[in-house]
User: Fold these one by one.
Assistant:
Number 1:
Amino acid sequence: MDFSVHGRYLRQNKQTMALTFPFSAIVAQDEMKLAILISAIDPSIGGVLVFGDRGTGKSTTVRALAALLPPMEAVVNCPYGCAPGKQAGLCKVCDGPEAKDPPKTRQVPVPVVDMPLGVTEDRVVGALDLERALTQGEKAFEPGLLARAHRGFLYIDEVNLLEDHLVDLLLDVAASGENVVEREGLSVRHPAKFVLIGSGNPEEGELRPQLLDRFGLSVEIGTPEDLPTRIEVVRRRDAFEKDPEGFTKRFEKEDAELRKRITAGRDLLPEVVVPDAALERAAQLCLALGTDGLRGELTLIRAARGLAAFEGDKEVTDEHLKRVAPPALRHRLRRNPLDDAGSSVRVGRAIEELFGA
Amino acid sequence: MTETMAPELTPWALASIAGGLFAVDPSGCGGVAVRAHAGPVRDRWLEQLRQLLPDKAPMRRLPLHIADGRLLGGLDLAATLKAGKPIAERGLLAECDGGVAVMAMAERLTSSTAGRVAAVMDAHEVVLERDGLGMRVPTRFGVVALDEGMSEEEQVPDVLMDRLAFHMDLIPIAVRDMDEPLWTSEDVGRAREFLPNVEVSDNILEALCGTARALGIASLRVPFLALRAARAAAALDGRDQVSEEDAALAARLVLAPRATMLPPSEDDMPEEQEPPPPEEPPEEEQNQEDQEDQDPAELDKPLEDRVLEAAKASLPAGLLAQLQAGLGARSRSSAAGKAGALQQGNRRGRPIGTRRGELRAGARLNVIETLRAAAPWQPLRRAQALADGSSTKSLRVHVRRDDFRITRFKQRTETTTIFAVDASGSAALHRLAEAKGAVELLLADCYIRRDRVGLIAFRGTEADLLLPPTRSLVRAKRSLAGLPGGGGTPLASAIDAVRELAESVKRRGETPVAVFLTDGRANIARDGSQGRTKATEDALGAAKELAAEQFKIILVDTSPRPQRSAQELAMAMQAQYLPLPHADAATLSSAVQTASS
């Protein structure tokens, strides 16, 4: 088999990808699904961390996202998939002298980029295009995974096994929304705004606190305990493995429904009002839990607004706050290694005290 | 198939059946974990498997310390240079497509390698982002993990074990027990073709899920793997329906070896059993109700029971005792954490980039980066060489000294803090709770520094390693919380245990720090006999031996007033002495910190 490959930049597209398990076919794990959907509505919430046991469908859920998300408008030939009309986020190509005004655009799927274990740094940040250097003697930049994830999602499975220097790099880019490459005499900067989704198993080792804090929402999942749910999970998985196409078809309608809700939620988001009462509630909650910094409060409000938009509500209420408080706050509590009540319980207690049962 | 269900199935027959089922559907079943010493039994089993697999199916051996480039694929340098354009090289996992990957000494596998293999198994493709290449190579293969682990400490990483349907133990099998294979490669070939036609009824599905839960198996991947095994069994038998026997067989082979608790049986009343997880009984009732609501499931109950019976029949006797003592779950989880920790521990420093440099002894040339550095200049240099008419004009690649890139490593010596907590009666009386509190504070601190922690508790007649060195705060927290108090003070054994652990930490190239929390009043001697004089003598002796190890030790005196006995002990082990009344959080923390820096 000839295996010559050009490390050419390839936006993931549906035809080349194997069929993934449909999002709406995933049984239970509601908190995880909700957290991911909310960050799809408002990417500024800052990503989702999913920690849980093996065999709970963490990766399946994230990978299902790619097929679920409504396609986005992107400038044709722009290697970063820039959005038309958004000057601030534009890269050199769209901003350059050859750019058309208005630019030609087309619909592309939202990138959900898998960061495989064993990835090398040059592929993450991008590096010299080896092929062009070898064949044409040209110095050209070849975008990496960060560029590919721009405006989409970057998924890191087993995030706690990721090498430290890569983690540092990701943190930096996730915070600034910009990837700066200074290698091999190249000097490139390009936008890289993405939603970071990480998953892992706490028994494999803890995550560094800096990285933990960087995730907007944190979800803890376990295997469903009740038998009927467990049976359903295995049954669906089995049906999918046997006949991926038929199975995906069965859930097409539900996926489409969900897709519509995401689009509607995104449209509604700017109109959702956060009343002063809700702001105060959020502040009280964070105070009661002693979360560090303002990030928790901000995330809580944003997540509540995202949830309201997803549900089609125009105002953030206590109900929204209550539902998103655990994922927004549980990883920000100050560490208390011996408080046997897990952080989820502590958040639950605080909610109960504040909002009443 | 019915005769294979006979209860007198020998371990070899079970292993043989597992091999047959695996050969029918290698990637569906995930694989086989084979616990065995290298020897004729294992060789024979592997040989039989080889014969059952189709002739063309690859069976490749994965070396233990395989580099990512070989495992997943990467840039084929020789071909790249020859062709003048990047050529990818397939990794071993891609080469295993349609066959089997054999991993020798899988118990020593790092969890990062295991994680990579698991990711490829899940996605059925190698997703490669390395060395300037980005590509996806579809591959489906089964894994045979050869586990030669001798102790609890050495186990195949859970991330891989979870994906392997069959966990076989060949150790008890003697050479004379071995038999001819049950199937021929033609049988397996037919079954492989027939496999897609095999249907599974809901009863079977429910029975397998129910059995898995009754045996305390949390992962949902497991009943799914059992289902695949049952399917393979039906296909081997030429049936298009999975029968009860198939399910029972799958339960024996896939579910039973993973049991973490005893299934509730009708004779035993629930209260006679070892404490089940508290939420268990209500769940049970609720499920039964659910089932009654959903469908007339009562009829299926006996089926589940029969499947469960089959699984129970093959639970090893030792395991039963262990489960009864409630140990099963713990020993598994302890292995899980260790795998992760080990992976972090045995790196030789992390590469922190490359720099331009001279090739001197000890420097590691980074070939890829060097070529990358040289690449853009090739056409230029070639043209120049041609113009000069120099002897280098025929070279394919012009690499100059300026291009050399050396990998830089940052060696990080990791610290493992060993806590030895006195949980004896005298300490409990005084302030076990406070000692626990102090440990917590230190734990939080270790967590921030990313140290690893180990926990040894001593009470009664011996010292227990509660927690082998780990970086998981969750587990440290859990084992500390469950620490009971009371009994004698076997100080000498505790010191010995710390010394042994510290030695193993050192062997791993890390720095140990020991923190004792005790009042220093030994009353149990090394041999387990009572008596303060002998015990103190033993403890001081052990302390001197420990001092010879020359690493940082801190002794926190947990008695209400500083004790002479503790001071003497600290002196003997050349430890820093901190009486707890003065040892507030900050002092403790800074003491450990200075020790580890």
Note: Chain B touches chain A through 101 residues (CB under 8 Å).
Number 2:
Amino acid sequence: MGEHELSPVRGPESSPRSSVSRRRFLGRSALLAGAVAFGDGILDVARRTAAADGPGTPQPPPLEEKRTVRISNWPLYIDAKTVQEFEVATGFKAVYTEDVNDNNEFFAKIDEPLKRGQSIDRDLIVLTDWMAGRLIKLGYTQPIDAAKFPNKANLVEALRGVGFDPGRVHSVPWVSGMTGLGYNPKRLGRELTSVNDIFAPELKGKVTMLTEMRDTIGLVLLGEGADPAKCTLAEAKAAAAKIKKYREAGHFRGFTGNDYAADLAAGNIAVAFAWSGDVQGLTKDNPDLRWVAPKEGAMLYSDNMLIPKTSDRGDLAAAFMNYVYEPAHAAQIIAAAPYLSPVKGVDAELAKLDAGLAKSPLVNPPAEVRARLHVFRWLEDAEDKELNKAFQDAIGA
Amino acid sequence: MAGIAAGGSRRSALAPYLLLAPGILYLLAFYLVPALSLARTALSPETGPWYGGLQHALSDYGMHLVRSFQYALTATVLAALLGYPLAYAMAFRAGRLKNLLLGLVMLPFFTTFLVRTLAWKTLLADEGLIVRALGALHLLPVEGRLLNTVWGVLGGLTYNFLPFMILPIYVSLEKIDRRHLEAAQDLYGAPASVFRKVVLPLSLPGLLAGSLLTFIPAAGDFVNAELLGTPNQKMLGSVIYGQFLTVRDYPLAASLSLLLMFFILLLVLAYTRALGTEDLA
Amino acid sequence: MKPALRGQAGSRWGGRLLELYAGLVLLYLFLPILVIVLFSFNRPDGRFNFVWKAFSLAAWQDPLLYPALVEAMRLSVSVAAVSSAAALVFGTLIALALCRYRFRAAGAVNLFLVLPLTTPEVVLGSSLLSLFLSLDAVMGYWTIVLAHVMFSISYVALTVRARIRGFDWTLEEAAMDLGATPFQVVRKVTLPLIAPGIAAAGMLSFALSLDDFIITLFNAGSRVTFPLYVYGARRAAFPPQINVLSTTILAVSLFVLGVIVLWQQRVHRQNLRWIPESR
């Protein structure tokens, strides 16, 4: 019996040709679907530049995958070329992901797997001092191979001895940054000088603060005339209570990680607690934006590169650290993300790239600004928990 | 229907169960077991009585639960007010355009939910066209803006789940026998009474199904509130997300999830008792 | 359309008003989509494609410029393909069981199928997470796929059931009477009959998987799907390539949808033709 006799989809008068062409069409679309799904089609072009450990390859990875270093960093923290140039210079691949938006949020993602000794698919992560300290204390990091990282000698003296990592065995700073006010003077019709301007009644609904507790509480404390480096828990909780009062009255548009950036550029926000280098990067989106260290003071922090203990590519991570600790490379990064570089000799290199920026107070704060920079004091676990609870309640999280 | 009776003697009584087995077992493993796992997490806190998590959840976040249901209800009513006339026009006045319109209503399904919601951010921006136009007409709410207000959140919720309202209403209107309508017209005359006495009752199952399909995702949503609201509009979904993935207070997070599921399940059961499962499909 | 029906929508003015209102609702539905498509032709000066600057084809000429975005899209397409294939098998078998047999558990199965559809995504996502956590599972590609198959099965089963209800299954009997083996029957009779329904369900589950954000957020581990990429991108940099890819998904979906609808109409017509008494 021929196959067409049995086919009920074919009406008495439909020709065999149409059913054949339909079948061929189906076959082709199935092929296409498969090709698209597994990257053998048009997307193949992209695969050369994308991660080698892509989806659809659940089998044990080929040797090549071993040579990829996977990096998680904060947004707006690097230029467009460094990663590619690192690949060319070293022969390694690098997957650079801007997926750190909040220390707590990122910690929550990696805590469970690291606790169990599972891979987090990252070889280098960048977290703020206090969180870096917590990770090191929990034993979640591995020491950096000094032999693979000769440029560590370029680390500035001031950042060599930190309490959470004496001798910088597990961590080196990516950059240091200042937290102050980001704003649009054109839209405001005036310049800002005081932290407390953010509470001005006419700015109701047009301001944001950061979900990063130490930055936000620290700045509010400065506005209250307290020193975040020495504050009592009660003072810090009073600052949280002030934030809560204003939040409940609808004063804040939100509490953000890096997501204040787009809203500040689009004009939905007039004033934000903002990170110094971000705002400079945003001036391409909106040339009117400005960052200022308030007269009461600004917060100073460092974000640190760490190697998760479960990474089997510590040598590649160290190679990346070594690469970005070359003054010329560091300068290229600073030129795009104008923060304070921890690398010695970066000023001379930056002057070659962008003479104006090299003199910018964002990159080289003058002494009178430096004098106003504060580091949030170390919080013991119990204090951290208590203050964090008050803070989360204050921001309505 | 001829097909259903075709089972007949040739096939063993086991056949339907064999066909069902893989899918149903899968759903048992990855729907029911997780739900039970959630319930266990919620109801066995490390310290205190079994209901401690629930108590904590209700006292700390009862407000968010109430707010989620309020917003979802408002969005459902708005979606019905917007969706019913459109479905009606499609069913009775579109003529040959019917299929085209049906495709157009489904259009939002084929663009990513998040990208769509972010597009609303662009549309509602403080310096955008809509806000400027409304501002010129003095029609803005007291906040003087739309983005990051309760209006933004409600607009986003209504928008994102509107097709779920329109499609079931359309299907139920489409099913109405046109001869009924002609008869009703002879009987009642006035179009308003025809609508009230014939069309509306016959489309009620669709309206109810649409309401349920709009209400449920809206009540559990947090993307609209996160992107288009402020912390003061935070919905329960946000809290569940934050408690699970940032704070990692699992018993509390699971309790919140369980509460949300419990209230929605009540709604669904009430619905299916009244109308069966047919119109939800 | 019969004049009598037009009359029942009310007076001429009432009808116009209704059409105007319906048009405005449609506009509301399209507005964001217009923005998405329009902004794929934008040329933002900086990182964020949220404010209109200038018309440009740059993003269309270089849609794969950002490796991480391409990688996310590739992951999403791969997950959607694998999960909708699995869901199609499970769901279609369920639909066949429900349409072709009478059995005692049918009512319970129907209710059970509707449950996942009526459970909020945040509950589905968090309960799966709670299971995976208790199993010490490693989150990643396969946990995403498992989750997507779960929420797709019901959609597939209900869609296929809706499309094949009312088909004439006596054809299978006839084929058997003519000496076909059960395998032949399935291949030559059953599959061609239900194929358009399966295609529609496949497209639906593919689209659902591609679009899913909330459930994936809970179960993705360190993997980044397209929606997760978009969620992160609004903080870091939102290039117009996101809009280009979204517009492409839209265009491809519309095309596939059109093909399926035409095909379905044809199969339906032909199936009816086999049943002399059906008209």
Note: Residues 16-38 of chain A form the longest helix (23 residues).
